[in-house]
Amino acid sequence: MPLFDVYPLYNVTPVSGKDILVYDDEGTEYLDLYGGHAVISIGHAHPNYVDAITNQVNTLGFYSNAIQNPLQKQLADKLEALSGCKDYELFLCNSGAEANENALKLASFKTGKKRVVAFSKGFHGRTSAAVAATDNKNIIAPINAQQAVTILPLNDVEGVKAELEKGDVCAVIVEFIQGIGGLDQGTVEFFEQVDKLCKANNTMFIADEIQCGYGRSGKFFAFQHYNVTPDIISMAKGMGNGFPIGGILIHPDIEAKYGMLGTTFGGNHLACAAGLAVLNTIEEENLIENTNIISEYFVEKAKTIPQIKNIKGRGLMLGLEFDFEVGDLRKKLIYDEHIFTGGAANKKLLRILPPLTIKKEHVDQFFETLKKVLEEIQETV
Q1: What is the Cα–Cα distance from 291 to 367, expressed in whole angstroms?
Q2: Closest by CA position to 295, among listed 359, 225, 252
Q3: Which residue stretches, if any, does this entry annotate as coiled coil (predicted)?
Q4: Tell me, which fold does domain 47-284 have in CATH?
Q5: Residue 127 burial by Cβ neighbours in a 10 Å radius (0-12, 13-18, 19+)
Q6: What is the pLDDT of residues 287-319, one digit of tens each?
Q7: How far is CA 232 from CA 53, 110, 272, 282, 344, in A?
Q8: Would you state the pLDDT for residue 381?
Q9: What is the separation of C-alpha 125 from the centre of its chain, rounded to a whole number of angstroms?
Q10: CATH number belonging to the domain at 14-46+286-380, selected among 3.90.1150.10, 3.40.50.720, 1.10.3210.10, 1.10.238.10
Q11: 347 to each of 140, 150, 320, how far by Cα in Å?
């Protein structure tokens, strides 16, 4: 049976990994500066992670949410301690799209309204309401397009104000650092004014931290770089280091009711074991501190390369912008130099999303290689 052909694939077959390195089926070593869309937060096959999942699956891999699962409470308590999001409540699911879907549903329940405000170049998932709030018409089917969504330019405070004052907006959803859109960020004034406008207009402010959360921005959540208090915070990618897990943090002003949200697999025993291993490792290995140290080092190195016209993002969610499209550069890096990097909707942007365990020696390796490849490309022009 053939696979449904919806992914353009590189001709590389990883079979194992160790920290920031992966190995293909021919034994070739690759430097992973992409982490599978920022999913690998604590490195491939981290011993804490492997032990936690192995021990849990040897005990109990799954039971439904109809019973007590103390691992969920342990995960919630650890998440509160590390994130600083005191008094929020946790709902667990399986993916970023599900997290945003539940966030939007909860906002609609809370406010009694149904329209959503989102922003250009934003990406929030591929399910019903989440994809409708995504600024990409190519992935929105007619069944999704029936959702009531208004997409505004990022930093358009007056536009947000005008829409919220119409009285029918249940939620404003925003990435504090855009992912696939190209690492654009709102201004301090924009984020803080939107937060105030939401609170003044009975509208839920949703921080989409699917990609920029879990330490990747240099703080636990990217919204923490600003003076804002989201009503709902969505999480996923770095949360399980590859094990499918997502969730939302919910402000205590939103009251839970039985049946309001639900999931079969969300918050299962294996997922919680993976999630706890990630949080414990972030804490024990000071990975947020490492993110800031390596980010500063990376940016200084990037500034020495004249072909790089702009450096975008924060922490270890970085973009290198050139004055040419980077598709061929990415191919040379992966096939000739064995380095994984990422692309974006901005075709001139190279995305860097490594595990938070990355060291300066890896940054040196990347930039030495990048200089060489850029010289080779220039010689062929």
Answers
A1: 18
A2: 359
A3: none
A4: Aspartate Aminotransferase; domain 2 (3.40.640)
A5: middle
A6: 999 999 999 999 999 999 999 999 999 999 999
A7: 28, 11, 20, 23, 26
A8: 55
A9: 11
A10: 3.90.1150.10
A11: 21, 25, 11
Distance of CA 356 to the CA centre of its chain: 13
- The token duo for 150 is 């208004």
Strand-pairing partners, residue 250, are 89, 232
Q: What are phi and psi of 312, to 5 degrees?
A: -120, 160
Task: Report which residue type is found at 25.
Answer: D
Neighbours of 122 (CB within 10 A): 22
Token look-up 């021990």 returns 55
Phi, psi angles (nearest 5°) of residue 272: -65, -40
Please name every residue paired with 246 in a beta bridge, in sequence order, or none if there are none.
93
- pLDDT tens-place string over residues 75-120: 999 999 999 999 999 999 999 999 999 999 999 999 999 999 999 9
Q: 152 is written with which tokens?
A: 């505004």
Of 356, 371, 360, 361, nearest to 320 (Cα)?
Answer: 371
Distance between CA atoms of 370 and 352, rounded to whole angstroms?
Answer: 13
Q: What are phi and psi of 333, to 5 degrees?
A: -65, -40
Whether the Cβ atoms of residue 113 and residue 169 lie closer than 8 Å to each other = yes
Nearest C-alpha neighbor of 117 from the set 145, 148, 86: 148
Whole-model pTM? Answer: 0.96
**What is the location of CATH 3.90.1150.10 in the chain?**
14-46+286-380
- Where in the chain is CATH 3.40.640.10? 47-284
* Single-letter amino acid code for the residue at 313: G
Closest CA to 125 of 160, 100, 97, 154: 97
User: What is the rounded distance in angstroms from the CA atom of residue 31 to the CA atom of residue 36?
Assistant: 12
